[in-house]
Amino acid sequence: ATMPPLLAAIANAGRHGVLVKSAVVMERLGATTRVAFDKTGTLTRGAPHLAEIHSVDGTFTEAEVLALAAAVEVDSEHPVAAAIVGAARADRTTLPAAEGFAAEPGRGVSARIGAHRIAVGSPVALMSRIDGVPTTAEQDACVVVDALQERGFTAVVVTRDGGPIGVLGITDQLRPEASVAVELTSRVTGTAPILLTGDNRRAANLLAAQVGISDTQAELLPHEKVDAVTARQAAGERVAVVGDGINDAPALAAADVGIAMGGAGSDLTLQTADAVVVRDDLTAVPAVIALSRRARRVVI
Ligand code: ADP
Ligand code: MG
């Protein structure tokens, strides 16, 4: 007996390095009219590194800013956290003890160190705290953030009891196959893929241009990634979302097909996803969509 086409397609997808969780998902993949890619860990390798440390308040040296940030990030699973902790470890920095760790997906993390609350996170979170006349440290932080973002960096602000003490510049390498994957995706779906990211607008646009994406939505919180997906669906599109981080889990759940990048993916993301890319290759995404379309043709 021959295998039903969708099951054969699932087996084939496995050979391409994609675990497809059911025949229903395998079928749905071929109906995709739009693919939305996440940035960090999806179009990029997801192994960012710390490139620059800036002290913006005369009180702390760059090494102290790094030590405080790393002490908080030790408990975070975000790739940005790995970059910060990795840099501190490479410098053999002794990390102070942190207590009461809290994470806000898409924004950042915080913890108590001694008598102070140290937060590490997105500049958007910092800027929104500034009301009235900014302090000198806040002004300095804004200038540094601006300059870093202009150069395509992810800028992360370190605050102590709400006031900025430093800014970190983080970069991630583009996946070598990213632009080919984008091109193949647009060919197989017949539409231009889009970019949905929590990172800053300028870094997002710069990267989008490099991979050939012209439709980018940046500085999105996890629930705003969901809104971006449901808006497309309301317009009649069938959306596949490709993401890696814990912050992508809600968008993967809202998508017609949620695809997780397996390598760096968080447990929650892997659980939520309908399919998992286990080979470290983004071209597997258009490949499985093409497989599904062929299998559907056989079924019909
Ligand atoms: P992406 O959509 O590119 O995967 P995220 O939604 O995960 O990005 O994060 C958005 C932004 O929130 C990051 O660019 C960073 O500024 C901030 N952020 C999130 N988590 C952390 C963290 N653990 N430490 C520092 N900054 C963080
Ligand atoms: Mg991500």
UniProtKB/TrEMBL annotation:
<protein>
    <submittedName>
        <fullName>Heavy metal translocating P-type ATPase</fullName>
    </submittedName>
</protein>
<comment type="similarity">
    <text>Belongs to the cation transport ATPase (P-type) (TC 3.A.3) family. Type IB subfamily.</text>
</comment>
